[in-house]
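Summary for the lay section of the report: proteins are chains of building blocks that fold into shapes. Here we show the chain for Asparagine--tRNA ligase and then a coded description of the shape we predicted for it.
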Amino acid sequence: MSIKELLQEKTNVDEVTLRGWVRTFRSNRFIALNDGSTLANLQVVVDFEHTPEETLKRITTGAAIEVKGKVVESQGKGQSIEVQATEITILGDCNPDEYPIQPKKHSLEFLREQAHLRVRTNAFGAIMRVRSTLAYAVHKYFQDNGFFYVNTPIITGSDAEGAGEMFRVTTLDPKNPPLTETGEVDYKKDFFGRETNLTVSGQLEGETFAMSLGKIYTFGPTFRAENSNTSRHLAEFWMIEPEMAFYDLIDNMNLAEDFIKYVLKYTLEVRREDIEFLNQRFLEEEKTKPQTERSEMSLIEKLEFVIHNDFKRVSYTEAVEILKNCNHNKKKKFQYLIDEWGVDLQSEHERYLVEKHFGCPVILYDYPAKIKAFYMRLNEDGKTVRAMDILFPGIGEIVGGSQREERYDVLKQKIEDLGMDEQTLWWYLELRKFGTAVHSGFGLGFERLVLFTTGMTNIRDVIPYPRTPQSAEF
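The coded shape description reads as follows.
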């Protein structure tokens, strides 16, 4: 039986066998036992007079133990029941002089260096349980709404974003690769017979399945070789990417908003205890900030605000006007000043719109074509595309999506204009020749969703083992 099951048990349980890790052991009598199933520790009362001295010495913080005992009403504060141990077995010793996760407050920086053990802390245990439930909610939402789950390739020959920031996959000898007559690396001699990379997105392949199955979604790892050593970027992260046939931009916005509200509501209900703990942590962190930088809402208030309020829909053109004329821009408080239409909005601009101007999540749409990817549907004005981004407080962009370009000639011309290799995208273009139709989709970086839900501020703290520039530990 897990500790969670025991604490939730409605009927009387007289005797139990529990296994877990010692959080603390005090007065040679009270063990705080945690097995990861819940935030709560269970108090185990040791009959130290009848327990061998050798066993007592081995009950240390971090040790794995098995406890058999009687469940009784607790006399102490903080718990309704406790277990009076009749038998304790040490399953795995833990040297207290070497164990780094001692029962005290550790910095997040220190815990990142102990990523293999940090999930034993209350905060990281809560974060990872929330992450697990969010992932389940993602699948549940799409499965309940008629979507099919598709596993798109991790190794690919195409660059879905056209940015070129990809990790190469090769079996060639890096010190002596085969060369062509012109001195280029001869990828025909490579494993796949061509240049291949780790995927930056499953979108393009997802589109092909949407145009057969109707509504699909991918949920898998993606990789960006972007040298961004920030609190918002990872080199390896998980992406949720639905693609829908016969959906236009408005349908796409409606789906994205409904989806986000559902997964947040579901997770808040199922993981209430963990989120309440993270809420308290969030409030404590806010107290350390200057008054002007503190959040006006608690973590739970933020989640409920998103769940219960409509997202504000604003065109890129309108957003640029707001930013250009705001005091923040006029007083040069932005790092990147807004002075003309067509600039790519930065995180500071996105957060200003959400946190200062509108005070709610915002969906920006109809972006300049020049700053968006080649596959987005060109509007009739010839200068904007049917793109949409969802902006969240504290995060900035959390969703990026668009109506896809379904016209063969237009897409072919865009690929040519951007100097992209048409040969690697022949199959994607061909989709526009055989039964083309309006279709749309979006991508949501899962870690940013976890970041928002847990109230954490660094994306490295919401993924088990973060991959960042100059760091691939563990």
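Put simply, here is one thing we learned. Residues 3-99 form a domain with the OB fold (Dihydrolipoamide Acetyltransferase, E2P) fold (CATH 2.40.50.140).
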